[in-house]
Write a structure and sequence with these properties.
By secondary structure, the protein is an alpha+beta fold. It has two domains: 6-82, Beta-grasp domain (Ubiquitin-like (UB roll)); 91-183, Orthogonal Bundle (DNA polymerase, domain 1), CATH 1.10.150.120. It contains five helices and five strands. The structure holds FE2/S2 (inorganic) cluster (2 copies).
């Protein structure tokens, strides 16, 4: 008997469970968009080059066009539809709106998902390729424009909205820092 080429899987997306049968070759991106109608995640290059399809897997950035849906089973998947907290926009979403961090908007869901993780990675002290002092005891480097550009460099914007995107990420990072300070 020929081996089966499809499997029933359960995906945990934005806190909800979705059970579906997929061909083993189905990417997470296609499962989200074509099977589950979660079309906020965009397909740009379909080759891992543009970042339009970025989602969070267990809180870390991943390009969903290079991820098989079957391999995402058991992971906590967050798409742009799950970034806000109920009616309250995520600070990154609010900053993109306030500072016009987009033009056509096609790259924006991926940019926002990436930025959410960038801010967390930076706060956790992760260095980037442009960080001068990478010693753990140095702590997080200042989140300069160069740091933001480098950390967001996997997300392309064909409209060239980069200046506003960098400003939006900086503003969201600052507002999250402020919130943390107020809660401490
Ligand atoms: S569509 Fe996935 S990186 Fe471009
Ligand atoms: S806003 Fe159009 S591609 Fe980025």
């Amino acid at each position: 008997m020929a081996p089966s080429t499809s499997s029933a899987i359960t995906l945990n997306i934005n806190g909800e469970k979705f059970t579906l049968t997929v061909d083993h070759r189905t990417t997470l991106l296609d499962a989200l968009r074509e099977r589950l109608d979660l079309t906020g995640t965009k397909k740009g290059c379909d080759q891992g080059q543009c970042g339009a399809c970025t989602v969070l897997l267990d809180g870390r950035r991943a390009v969903s066009c290079l991820q098989l849906a079957v391999a995402a089973e058991g992971r906590e998947i967050t798409t742009i539809e799950g970034v806000a907290e109920g009616e309250r926009l995520h600070p990154v979403q609010q900053a993109f709106l306030d500072l016009d961090g987009f033009q056509c908007g096609y790259c924006t869901p991926g940019q926002i998902c990436s930025a959410v993780a960038v801010i967390q990675e930076h706060a956790a002290g992760w260095p980037s390729a442009v960080t001068d002092d990478v010693r753990p005891e140095a702590g997080p480097p200042p989140l300069t424009d160069d740091e933001i550009r480098e950390r967001m460099s996997g997300n392309l914007c064909r409209c060239g909205a980069y200046v506003s995107i960098v400003q939006a990420v900086a503003r969201a990072a600052a507002s999250e820092e402020q919130d943390k300070g107020a809660a401490a």
